[in-house]
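Input for the complex:
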Amino acid sequence: MLDLTCQERKVVLFLISIALIGAGVDFAVKMNTGIEKVIVSENIAKININLASLDDLINSGVVTQKLAQKIIEYRDNVGSFGNIKELKEVKGIGEARLEKIEEIFFVE
Amino acid sequence: MKKPLVCLASGLCLGIFLSYKLTLSFCWVYGAALIILTVSIFSIKKGLRADILLLCLFFLFGAVLLKDARMLPKHHIVRCISYKNNGLYTIKGFISSEPVFKNARASFIFNTQQIQYGNFKQNCTGPVLVYTKDKRNFKLGQDLVLTGTMARPYKPADSYHKSFRGYLYNQGIFYIMRTRAVRVAEISNSRYILRRLAVYLKSRMKERIARYTPRITAGILGAMVLGERRGIPPLINNNMVKSGTVHILVISGFHTGIVAFIIILILKLIRIPKKARFYIAVFLLIIYCLLTGVSAPVVRATVMAIVFLFAYLIRREPDIYNSLSLAAIFILGFNPRQLFDVGFQLSFISVFSIVYLYPKIRLLLHADAIRIKFLRFLIDGCLVSLSAWLGTMGFIACYFKIFSPVTVLANIFIVPIAALITLCGFSLIIMGFFCPRLAPFFAYTSELVCALMLGINNLLIKIPGAYFYLP
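Predicted:
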């Protein structure tokens, strides 16, 4: 009746299913604002610096081994970081370095 | 010879490789190529002898290509810069790559036409990489006069090929300029028309993706649909490297296949004749290739797609080995230095190992005997991943110093999800242009699938022994 080939039918079905799933998520988000954060939160691409190990810090590529050790020492001596700007208290971290660190780490 | 192009491409690669290793002068290699050419012409009808001569000719042609590419013209910019003069240079020319804006600076490749040092001015050629903190909105093809310092790219003492210098040398770039002053001349309208069209389309598509999706999802979609990898957060990139699935963030044959499929389907729906469909599809595939940055995997995939489309047009069965070899000859013909590029090597070796190893492993394990369709599909996916991993394992260990046994398992889960993300990304762009009301639904689905992929990837790399860093 519609004169569609099998391939064309598959494409239409695919598009409809994507739109339906999206509509479902849209509905869930509207009903419960908490879900919005669950989908892809900004923190999924970052490491919590208060929980990061020495290896995490070194492998991030934004701090040297020496600086990573200083961050761990600061965390052990002073306590957890309250916000990301507090990292400037660690000797060797300036504004430029902090910008790079902010791309990889967050504070919670 | 059932796969003539495979032998010829191998000869060409070998010629380039040996020419890189041996210090023979251009004249010797060129003379030998001319002699072989003459003999080949006279023995054109002599079967095996003619084939061997043709192979030798391709071998020598490869050597000639690299020698020629390494020889710089008299007025090349490298010859105009002296290491003793570390003051300010002024260069005139035009932007020949899409400018990248990151970390409060712009970077682009700049084709030079004239250079000035002090009062000494001369015409020159050749590209330089430019870094500038100028806030202007630079455009591809724009004419500029730049003043700044010239330096060679950074190279660590222990390695050449893995260094930034090696990477830039393979692209024919020998110097980096950090600007102090920038003067805009004019925008040339006749330069890079196709590429400017591609850049324009890319920016419109990027804008559509960014409008409907949050930053991380937009970054992933941008990489998987438009080849724009800069939007991917470093941590996500590192995690994908650890699980050996970073290849899904690069445009490959799969993406080109989807684009070709979408184009042909739309053209078919509006009843365009077969021949016209072919030409329009080829043109749009070339635009897509330009749009995604003309990297080795994209060019390979585009050439292969065009060969397949052509085979479909003339009703011939395409041979995957021959089309793969044609793509290699095409890329190396343009730039023989690409043979030493990691992207080129990984792209070709992965496709080759899938095409070569997968049917053999499948036969060995009697995968055909499995009755349950879903299980057979799962095992097929596993075998494709295994074949690609076996082929690329050595290269990855050598270049990236990482060995990831979790790769095979990760690919079984991640690759189908990545395929879904790519399809969602394309659908989102199309809907964003033609039906904005429905676009948010597609965006939500894309986001959901991205979250699923990242979640699975994070879970897999936490398995003990999932990956090892090599010394």
